[in-house]
Structure formats: C-alpha cells, structure tokens
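Example record

The entry below shows one chain as it appears in the dataset: sequence first, then structure tokens.
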Amino acid sequence: MFLVLKQIMYLKKILILFVAILFTSQLNANTPRSTGKYKNWESFSIETDKGKVCFAQTIPKKRSPAAVSRGQSKLFVTFRPSENIKDEISLTSGHDYKSSTVTASSGKNNFNLFSQNNFAWLLDEKEEQSFIKLMKRATNLIVKARTVKGAETTDHYSMMGFTKAYNTAKKTCS
C-alpha cells in the first residue's frame, strides 16, 4: 500500500511538472526574443498567428518635459513578411497624440508622421526608405509631439547601433 501511494505521489509530481513546463512554453511562445543588442538598439523576433515578425527598437536617451505624465517611448522598424510589410517605421511617445502633431528630425531633415491614439507612422514606403537612410547616417533623432491636451513632448533618440539592429531584424525575417 505504501509503495502504491509513493508511486501516485511521484506521478502527481511529474504531471505538475509537465503542466508547468507546458504553461511556461506557451507564455514564452508569444514573447519577443532578442536577436541582438547593439549599443542603443536591440533587434527582436516573435511568432504570431499571422507569422513571424521581426523588429529593431530603441528607447530615448532623454525625454522632456518631466512634468508630463506618460508611458514608455519607443522607436521601431518592423518586418512582417507574411503581410508583405518591410521597413515599417513606427513610434510611441507614451501618450495619446493630438491629431497629426508628430515630427521626427535630424539636422535639417524633418519628417511628419500621422498618428492614431498613442502610435505614429510615416505615410508611405518612399518616406520610410528616406527615413531609414537618415537613421543609418544620423547620430541623433529628435521626436516632437503634442499630447491630446496640447502639451509638447520631446524625445531624443541615439542612432548608435541602429544599422546593426536593423540588418539583424531584416535578416531574421528574410
């Protein structure tokens, strides 16, 4: 009898371990996996129900004003081969945007982004290609936006490491 109870307890432990491993693997299946860290940029890939998605991202080195309460700011370049999307530029400043008030600049180069809720994008592939060329040669990029309430926010991004992170994300999804 004691031996049977011991075997049942052993089987319960194995079942619990199996369920824990299965649950953990399901959680990790939809978590972006880093494919490389390059100075201020990092590249990632993730499997979604629509296929593989790869992206390079960074966070700003400086944000202002401190008085405006907002979430995290990020700048992305995304590849979604199953949807025939490549070099998609998007960003968030951590707040909902006032309509069409997002600009990105480096030196004398300025780009206007269209916004929806708390994300902004460039208008078309031609602008995205120009923007990526700028990002490859720039050292810094400044994003200015207005919150729904009208406060101006400014995010300063470093482009150090962009080219390697971009190339890694592009290669991972090719």
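Notes for this example: Helices lie at 2-29, 125-137, 162-172. The domain at 32-172 is CATH 2.60.40.1880 (Immunoglobulin-like).
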